[in-house]
Amino acid sequence: MRTSNTIRTRGTARAAAAIVAGALALSLTACGGDDDGDEDKSGGTDKATESTVTLPKLDGESLQVAAVWTGAEQKNFKAVLAEFEKRTGAKVTFVPAQDPIINFLGSKVAGGAPPDVAMLPQPGAIKQAVDKGWAKPLGAEAVKELSENYSQGWQDIGKVGGKQYGVYYKAANKSLIWYNTQVFENAGASEPKTWDELLTAAQTVYDSGVTPFSVGGADGWTLTDWFENVYLSQAGPEKYDQLAAHEIKWTDPSVKEALTTLAQIWGKKDYIAGGAKGALQTEFPASVTQTFTGGDQPKAGMVYEGDFVQVNIGETKAKVGTDAKVFPFPAVGGDAPVVSGGDAAVILKDSKAAQALATFLASPDAATIQAKLGGYLSPNKSVDASAYPNDVQRKMAQALIAAGDDFRFDMSDQAPQAFGGTPGKGEWKALQDFLKNPKDIAGTQAKLEADASAAYGD
Fold it and tell me: How far apart (Å, rounded) are the C-alpha atoms in residues 389 and 372?
């Protein structure tokens, strides 16, 4: 059995989850129509212009940074890299990568031209990069920034064999459901706090003439996120940790229970925009935009995914806090789930410049720049909440920091890439097939277990 990279909390996760979910429930629904602006409402200073970290002069040095980010996410990260260039004199080139990034990096390494730094979205990918001898440990300055600015849990998930390899520059709250306000108002639907209430809200929206859910099933990772929220809330943190480490099998009754629960939505073709066939042809960005275009007659009334949905909402005319609102993923079992994800900076070519960039990304300076641009959360506890451009993001960020170590990291991101992070394979493919045929619970479990066993080397 593989040792889990999951953060092992000390019996407080469920209570913390309830606190965080409660805070989100209170705060996210209270946001008004002025939440799309860039105004710093708390009157704080412009943290992006302050320097809290000392960086070396790197005139004449050049760096390549690889990430799978596209669109606004890539553009905003480039603004952070531009600040690093300004402060050090180095030249930084962003290298667009493809999923799975570990395969992309493998081809670069084989060709003798790996990027200096890569942004890896899975702890499992970090471990693979270390096992293959690609990743280099962080230096003293980067480790110092991490220890000052990050909770122990966020430091630990960037470690392999006790050594620090990753800087979790970007975090995600993956326990959110976004909804079209006009649709809910016209239907008379209210924000649910439990799974049963979610099913009631879905039926209410359906009865009003709008399909309840938009699902980006063409991207298998969205389906794993659905499963993880249901499983964490229903089975509890201990079982979640065990399944994440493959200490229990995917044929376990707890997995059957979670898939049966998911089928209450996935098994109703009229509840999903385009039915299963349509969902499997819908990529994540389109699953968001089709929920917030078309006025009060969009293709769907709700879409599940993390805080980063805001980036895609921004591509429509909808405004976060008025046209688009959000509620915490409802409690399926005792408590609402709190699932997090993130992207870590990992050094592949050890140099003074690469270590300096990792140090910068571990500082509040870098995170504050991107926080101001929106659609981003940082696990860096030294980032002032005033940096976030609206109340929705401020409250999400505050809840993330308040959770400390009491959260669970995305389960599929902890798995070996072959099982948890490869299009058309493993968990992604098994859940896509399950979306297509939600009655085949036993077959789905058997396929998940066979693929997991092979990937974990059991």
Answer: 6
Share of residues in the chain with pLDDT > 70 (%): 89
Q: pLDDT tens digits for 37-90?
A: 343 333 333 444 478 999 999 999 999 999 999 888 899 999 999 999 999 999
| pLDDT digits 0-9 by tens, 249-287 | 999 999 999 999 999 999 999 999 999 999 999 999 999
The pTM of this model reads 0.78
CA distances from 69 to 77, 243, 397, 424 (A): 9, 29, 21, 20
Give the span between the Cα atoms of 399 and 140, in whole angstroms: 30
Q: Hunting for tokens 């969205």 — which residue is that?
A: 222
Hey, what domains does the chain have and what are their CATH numbers?
A: 51-173+340-409 (3.40.190.10), 176-337 (3.40.190.10)
48 vs 367: CA distance, rounded Å: 9
Cis preceding linkage at 438, omega within 30: no
Answer for the pair 372, 302: CB distance below 8 angstroms, yes or no: no
Separation between Cα atoms, residue 209 and residue 224, nearest integer Å? 28
Burial class, 152, CB count within 10 angstroms (exposed 0-12 / middle 13-18 / buried 19+) = exposed
Q: Tokens for 427?
A: 């968990």
Alpha-carbon dihedral 281, 283, 285, 288, rounded to 10 degrees: 50
For residue range 294-321, list pLDDT tens digits in order: 989 999 999 999 998 988 998 999 998 8
CB 94 within 8 A of CB 357: no
State which amino acid sits at residue 385. Answer: A
The Cα–Cα gap between 415 and 421 comes to: 8
Say how many CA atoms lie within 13 Å of 409 toward its Cβ: 31
Cβ partners under 8 Å of residue 112, min gap 6: none
**What is the rounded distance in angstroms from the CA atom of residue 248 to the CA atom of residue 449?**
10
